[in-house]
Amino acid sequence: MPPPGLFITGTDTDIGKTYVTCHIARRLVAGGHVVGAYKPAVSGAGQNAAGQSVWADIEELHAATGKQFPRERICPQRFNAPLAPPSAARAENRTVDAPLLRSGVDWWRTQCDFLLIEGAGGLLSPIAEQETVADISQDLGYPLIVVARLGLGTINHTLLTLEAAAQRGLTVAGIVLNEAVPTVDDCSIETNAADLARFTKVPVLAILRHNNAEDVARLGEIDWITLAAIE
């Protein structure tokens, strides 16, 4: 049996999925859980001092889970170009191994008691030649946490993501509104959560202002274990 867990997706790229995933992981680790992190594929590498490719998402997930799991288990498929994984793979004359996107979870069955899976890009972003993140999420079967941008325009993006999830029979446990970059003179920030509540029953679990420690601390008050059991 796979461990219980959550699949963290987003309404866009650079929306704060890794940021939210890492904070959830740290809170659960602090509560005594052995938490695994799995990212089926990643693209967009930097370089370390030795000129080797380094993926920031993997490094952050590795640290948040206590540096106890191999990076190649956290993310078995890594590509250099800052493109969607299938495009980044083609740039290296490679292809994304679609079966491995799913089977990469198998190793975690005996390694942790809670698993956080992070998608690449948004829910309908390509992750293999003929598949999107939603296809992988559907097969893995974990409830979704949707990370959405805090600010003007997020109602449309969030509702479209929720509609795409519903069409595929995916369970959405909640929404996290995240201010990934500082926002200036955007009064919609104060109304985003209430506006979403008028159109969906999916709860807004947290509102994270940019680098606000008090907001992040409230993530620790959320019962992530119970949310993982939502059907």
TrEMBL record:
Alphabetized SUPFAM superfamilies for the sequence: P-loop containing nucleoside triphosphate hydrolases
Catalyzed reaction equations: (7R,8S)-7,8-diammoniononanoate + CO2 + ATP = (4R,5S)-dethiobiotin + ADP + phosphate + 3 H(+); (7R,8S)-8-amino-7-(carboxyamino)nonanoate + ATP = (4R,5S)-dethiobiotin + ADP + phosphate + H(+)
Localization annotation: Cytoplasm
Domain of life: Bacteria
Listed cofactors: Mg(2+)
Active-site residues from the entry: 39
Binding site for ATP: 14-19, 57, 118-121, 178-179
Entry keyword Ligase: yes
Annotated Gene Ontology cellular component terms: cytosol
Keyword annotations of the record: ATP-binding, Biotin biosynthesis, Cytoplasm, Ligase, Magnesium, Metal-binding, Nucleotide-binding
Keyword Metal-binding part of the UniProt annotation: yes
Any GO BP annotation: biotin biosynthetic process
Function: Catalyzes a mechanistically unusual reaction, the ATP-dependent insertion of CO2 between the N7 and N8 nitrogen atoms of 7,8-diaminopelargonic acid (DAPA, also called 7,8-diammoniononanoate) to form a ureido ring.
Name used for this protein in its record: ATP-dependent dethiobiotin synthetase BioD
Organism expressing this protein natively: Symmachiella dynata
Gene this chain is encoded by: bioD
